[in-house]
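Moderator note: this is an archived Q&A kept for reference. The question asked for a predicted structure of one protein chain; the sequence and the answer are reproduced below.
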Amino acid sequence: MFLVFVLGAGAAALGAPVRSSYGARITADEPEYLLTALSLAEDRSLDVSDEIAAQRYRAFHEVRLKPQAKVLEGGRMVSPHDPLLPVILVPGAAAGGWLGAKLTLALFAGLLGALLVWTAVRRFGVPIRRAALVVGVFAVSAPFAVYGSQIYPEVPAALAVTAGIACVTGPLDRRALGAFVAGTVGLVWLGTKFIPVAAVLALLVLWRLYRAGRRGESLLVAGALAVAGVAYLAAHLAWYGGLTVYATGEHFAGTGQFSVMGVAPDFAARTSRLIGLVVDRRFGLAAWQPAWLLMVPALAALVRRRPAGWDAVALPLVAGWLSATYLALTMHGWWWPGRQVVVVLPAAVIAVAVWASTRPRLGVVAALGVTGIFNLGWLFAEGWGGRRTMVVDFYETGNPIYRVWSRLLPDYVALNPGDWALHGLWILLSLAVVLHAVRGRGVEESPPGFG
């Protein structure tokens, strides 16, 4: 656990100096989170109007910042982002500004890796060295190592989900239930978009308690979550003037806060994201770390065998994936790839760790993983030299491996006939892999710890 913590935190810290864009060290939503953290540290307030007026952002955003928040009564400006991430960043931001905030998140990336190792070993019986290798591969590559140095709530949210899985699959004593409630509530306060995943985890715990005949405890947990939900809504109405943080967003002033999902969303067209989130040429997970392709057979094998705790891995992953597919405005944007699914990728890592508990499969993880580690290392090197940024032009990298590999992946922005052909090919390939996994050998492939 300590080794993976050091590797994960170290890899994320290596990316901290790399610029997000050429006109700013951090960009898009990142300045909003950091300004709120600075306001909380200095004023104990969510109001960032004075920080914006004083152009406090110039230290990390050289070009003039266009605020995302609309002006409220009394001239207040409250950033349209949930406040828990700024609260987490207060010590680091107060001590070290933008770099301190980034290094704080690097520590969270290390903690995420360590907890994933523990969960894979203690809850799913994966041999410790294999768990460390699998988790280590993903910890030091994209997107964990990238979002471990970008000011977004994704990595803390992924840590909360991992803790939730560890609680759901373990003995639900009072301490575990208390930790679960705290982590689930924290997940929601990290971002409204994480509510579907939090809801699935909550239902899993309540179902386990109910089936065990612990009706009183299930009612207490449900009551605690309900009270937390009421407090969440009341605080948002008081601070943001709406049920969600988007009520203060200038972008949603004319269309309403729920237009964050799109004014006229085409949900049928968004179905392509089901596979595009993995194989898109620029914004797919596998474009930068091919080992993410292994989540397909791993999840299929896990569902086929259905060992104890399988639902705590599969269901949150499905909930997060469907949210990214149908509720998110777009999978392409002014950010690093995978932003919409980082929160549930720990579940995919656990599934791959269980699947790779046999030697030949571990070699596949290692071989693909080294490629992904190389990809990120090359990009960081370009970023350190000022030749590339992590948001604007990362896909224009000179990395020869990426440039060849990406040609095998569809471009869901262009979607010319060749891209549609690649889209169909990857669907067929994925279905074939799933079918092979479903027809796998069975229980003899299970790692120690499964009955």
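Archived answer notes: The radius of gyration is 21 Å.
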